[in-house]
Amino acid sequence: MQKRLLLGHPQLAITIGRLCQQLIEKHQNFDNTVLLGLQPRGIYLAERIKERLQELTNTSIQLGYLDATFYRDDFRRRDSPVRANETKIDFLIEEKKVILIDDVFYTGRTVRAALDAMHAFGRPKKVELMVLVKRRYSSHLPIFPDYIGKEVNTLESQKVLVEWKHQKGVEEDNVWLINKID
């Protein structure tokens, strides 16, 4: 397995800061805006975004975790049972502006499932999508992120891996492009 660094710690911090600035330009006071991190890996980016936004705006911002496992179109097609993650949304999203946050945008199927799962918590006024990395040329559905940290040309055989320093065995935040060697 070969891997190439796409974003290292300093670039990743700058990218998160830029994404926050874009949100501030569009949402200004965040009175009617909430963040939903997509389980399992989007929650780490969502936490970083919330933390940075609160530093920049001196405003409290609501954050929830959304699991779309049982809404996926491939849920029953897998060989082994899928383990769901925790959904933790302790606020209403009815008539709110919702920003869905995930680490990597690949085919769009996870986002489609998340949109279905989100409606169990109310009907939002508006939904936007933020991703740290968007893989080009891989979308299966007509879904496109509103906020993109980095776009990357990838092959089907490649994987994008986002590592956060608080994860076990990880010393620094990094984003890798991994080539699978047969």
From TrEMBL:
Query: What is the superkingdom listed in this entry's lineage?
Result: Bacteria
Instruction: Quote the Pfam families the UniProt record gives.
Output: Pribosyltran
Q: Which InterPro entries match?
A: PRTase-like, PRTase_dom, PyrR_bifunctional
Residues covered by the Phosphoribosyltransferase domain = 7-159
Q: Name one GO molecular function term.
A: glycosyltransferase activity
Q: Which UniProt keywords apply?
A: Glycosyltransferase, Transferase
The record, for NCBIfam families, names: PRK05205.1-5
This chain belongs to the protein called Bifunctional pyrimidine operon regulatory protein/uracil phosphoribosyltransferase
